Recover the amino acids of this structure.
């Protein structure tokens, strides 16, 4: 695999796919005849470059090469993954898929971003249906991990398996949908909620802002981490899920039957929604709202990462593939990362306390490099930090790429003194840290000398 | 107002209300004839004591007094707020409300936790309907801020206004619903989504776990911070909300019409859901799932707090009412708080870097105490931290209550040296920090002497 992706259709969705591949080290070819495509993609890519690397506590791979192609052939002929994100009309999709398949490798994955059509509908006019599947993403594609992978019976099992592997490798989660269905899974929920929202506005029960508050101050917080059914399982308590349904089913049934009508999207209703939305958010530009949304998402997803749960577990799994442990020779690069938005104050400066975090991470990186890893700790040995002195030299901002180099200043028996230097990638030293650690026997909880390969590795690093 | 709440019905919902009031310093009377009530409430209160204080970077007020009452009269006769959370049957609600009103003050707020009934239905048999309103919370009530405040035309405006004030004062958000309606606002969405979920399971499209993943890896993350309409406003881009609806309305209309049926809750479907839920979450007890949910919610809400957005803005607003600035005399208590779960590693130990955070917060607290506040910074003056030395003495765990005392070691012109001592409330010293700061003129970006009242305050603290 050459790790080349072709993006066919470069709007907000296509641009999001592009950013996801490019920032994970893939080369990306774009084909979109829209003269505005390059500008639109630059905007999405700008947002993605700001936000996606902030999810991780380690730098992403070097960006791949981005090529705007004049022809469909140039874009797809060498691609491993081709993602179609053209407008939501079946005749257009058929035409574009046919042209793609005229030029693309037969073993390439051909994913469609359609939010409504079934894969069998997309495959109707194709001579090679086995490579076609729905890969339905969620905006912003460069942050949200969910991809609904919907094959038809004609899609080949090997293409499906490879698609899921590729998605994981770029930090996405391929949710394999068992049977094809209109609107897949998530959009059925979104449409149901959208319909209820329209009724509430039409009937004057609530404004767009009140509805958004009803969601984000309540069940939205629950759903971000557990979804629907596990939330109800917890609410039901020890009696179990069947009991919960038995208890709440009957009293919920009656209002359900009132919610079946579809409100007509009259001009008046559309205008009401637009006016309410302006009153709610019109004081911010779309660019500002995008940045606000992305900063919130980064912070929420990093919070779940710290809990190693829900979407945060996916990030941790992906991050493991980014870390390569250096062979310890002299100076060791122990941290390489971007400063995330949840580390900064309202001015965008890194909080004083987070310098301590960076140097704590540097010590962790050093420990991995000398082999003082989880196995070493499980064997009853560890280093405890006793004292750190940090000198703050230059202000640091959200979005900056930094590295930390670590050297050993002293290694005598149980004592270890490390010196960390935090730099911008341009070389500017931002802060330094002197760290004093003691080796500890975790059984006796008393200081002790390092053992085995760790002792050898430290000896080799002594000044 | 005596800050006394009466909780009528002490299940998961009543217990959550109880915890919210109690942990915000209210005295709480409980009336629930269930012999298990005391045990059930202890469980909810245990979870709440773990989680709620972690949302804040400042300690909550001293807990109020909790009293289990033998009679309705004893519970409600002196209450400012009475919250009814009895089973969801109108005849029971009428009987309980009537008994409450027989004994309670006429100016007390009488809120019902009903998720389905309209306030006018609750008021049907009442001689004093003006004090009755729906105050519909969301589980876990001790963490989620949303309360749907639904009055009828008979509810008095002064009761409604006071209810919203009280809710804010205990960190809740009263969403005033403009017109009464079955199931209020949020539950209409929950029911719509629940119905679609049942269909997906019945039709074999997805399992409970797959549905939960479709939510929590995708739109659940969006909804936790922006809700539905602002999310779509952003997705629609510069063209605006009306354009978005015009573009997406038609292609969404067709699948909508397929989603109108109500699935019958047959025994078979109930069993399928229960089995799938067991396969998904059965390896964890409900207690474990509650703790997992609460830790996730605390972390997500603290992430939004750091962004000062969505539910996090509500916490910041509430926190402002908790902080009292001390008059600076000798030793100043600059931090008083609980260690939150997002500050700890998988063993529950506080991360090394977070000690730096605590001492950075201590310096902030000191600055407020000497008057070096936002106005002082706006006038072009500030202190920058140049160097910190932290000594780590004792391991610290999530959930521990800590304080930091700060003393001035040196104050000479532009130079300021602070000494911070971090202690458990039992007195154990956990860590110390020596901090060297320089006063800076923010215009010239050069060091300078403190000015005005700040200079005077520092001089008074010199050793």
């Amino acid at each position: 695999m050459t790790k080349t992706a072709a993006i066919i259709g470069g709007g907000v969705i296509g641009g999001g796919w592009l950013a996801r591949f490019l920032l994970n080290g893939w080369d990306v070819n774009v084909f979109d005849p829209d003269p505005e495509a390059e500008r639109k993609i630059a905007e999405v890519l700008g947002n993605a470059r700001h936000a996606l690397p902030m999810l991780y506590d380690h730098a992403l791979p070097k960006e791949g090469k981005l090529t705007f192609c004049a022809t469909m052939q140039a874009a797809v002929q060498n691609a491993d993954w081709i993602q179609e994100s053209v407008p939501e009309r079946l005749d257009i999709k058929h035409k574009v898929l046919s042209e793609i398949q005229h030029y693309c490798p037969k073993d390439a994955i051909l994913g469609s971003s359609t939010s409504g059509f079934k894969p069998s509908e997309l495959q109707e006019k194709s001579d090679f249906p086995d490579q076609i599947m729905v890969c339905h993403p969620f905006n912003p594609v460069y942050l949200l991990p969910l991809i609904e992978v919907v094959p038809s019976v004609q899609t080949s099992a090997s293409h499906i398996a490879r698609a899921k592997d590729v998605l994981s490798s770029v930090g996405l989660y391929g949710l394999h949908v068992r049977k094809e269905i209109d609107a897949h899974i998530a959009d059925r929920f979104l449409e149901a909620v959208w319909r209820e929202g329209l009724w509430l506005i039409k009937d004057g029960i609530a404004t767009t802002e009140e509805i958004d508050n009803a969601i984000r101050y309540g069940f939205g917080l629950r759903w971000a981490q557990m979804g629907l059914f596990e939330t109800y399982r917890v609410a039901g308590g020890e009696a179990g899920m069947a009991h919960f349904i038995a208890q709440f089913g009957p009293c919920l049934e009656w209002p359900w039957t009132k919610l079946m009508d579809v409100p007509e999207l009259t001009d008046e209703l559309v205008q009401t929604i637009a006016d309410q939305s302006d009153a709610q958010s019109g004081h911010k530009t779309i660019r500002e709202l995008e940045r606000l949304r992305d900063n919130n998402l980064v912070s929420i997803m990093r919070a779940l990462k710290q809990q190693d749960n829900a979407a945060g577990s996916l990030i941790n799994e992906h991050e493991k593939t980014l870390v390569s442990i250096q062979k310890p020779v002299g100076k060791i690069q122990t941290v390489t990362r971007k400063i995330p938005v949840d580390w900064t104050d309202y001015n965008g400066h890194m909080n004083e306390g987070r310098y301590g975090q960076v140097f704590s991470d540097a010590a962790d990186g050093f420990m991995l490099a000398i082999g003082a890893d989880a196995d070493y700790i499980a064997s009853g040995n560890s280093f405890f930090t006793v004292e750190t002195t940090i000198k703050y030299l230059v202000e640091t901002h959200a979005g900056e790429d930094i590295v930390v180099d670590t050297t050993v200043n002293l290694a005598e028996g149980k004592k270890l003194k490390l010196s960390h230097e935090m730099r911008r990638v341009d070389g500017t030293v931002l802060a330094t840290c002197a760290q004093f650690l003691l080796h500890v026997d975790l059984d006796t909880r008393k200081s002790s000398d390092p053992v085995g390969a760790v002792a050898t590795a430290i000896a080799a690093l002594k000044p």
Observations:
- Residues 402 and 424 of chain B are 5 Å apart (CA to CA).
